[in-house]
Write a structure and sequence with these properties.
It is a single chain. By secondary structure, this protein is α+β, with helices and mostly antiparallel strands. The protein has helices spanning 4-11, 53-65, 90-95, and strands at residues 15-16, 21-22, 29-35, 38-43, 72-77. The strands form 2 sheets. The protein has a 3-stranded mixed sheet, covered by helices on one side.
Length: 100
C-alpha cells in the first residue's frame, strides 16, 4: 500500500507554473488519506481565481495515480482555511524571497 510520504513526494512533481514551485512546498496540500488502493487529497490554490487550477488538479491526480498500488486518486479543492504565504515551507519562502 502506498504511504502518505510517497504521495507527498509524487506531488512535489506538480509545480504551479505561475510561481514556479511545487504544490507541497507552497503549502497547498492540506490532507492526504489512503484507503486501500484509493488516495484522497484535499488541497487548495493560492487564490480562487488561479487560472491554472484545472491543470494543477489534473497533474496532481495524474502523478498520484501513477504510483504503484494506487488505483484511483480523488482530489478535493477546498478554500477553507484560505491559503496564505505563511503556509509555505521554509525552503519555498527562501527560494521565493518571502520573509515571514
Amino acid at each position: 500500500m502506498v504511504t502518505k510520504e510517497e504521495v507527498l513526494e509524487a506531488l512535489k512533481n506538480v509545480a504551479d507554473p505561475e510561481i514556479g514551485y511545487d504544490v507541497v512546498n507552497l503549502g497547498l496540500v492540506y490532507d492526504i488519506q489512503i484507503n486501500g488502493n484509493r488516495v484522497y487529497v484535499k488541497m487548495t490554490m493560492t487564490a480562487p481565481t488561479c487560472p491554472v487550477t484545472p491543470w494543477i488538479l489534473s497533474e496532481a491526480q495524474r502523478v498520484v495515480e501513477e504510483l504503484p498500488g494506487v488505483e484511483a486518486c480523488d482530489i478535493e479543492l477546498v478554500w477553507d482555511p484560505p491559503w496564505n504565504p505563511k503556509m509555505m515551507s521554509d525552503e519555498a519562502k527562501q527560494a521565493l524571497n518571502i520573509d515571514y
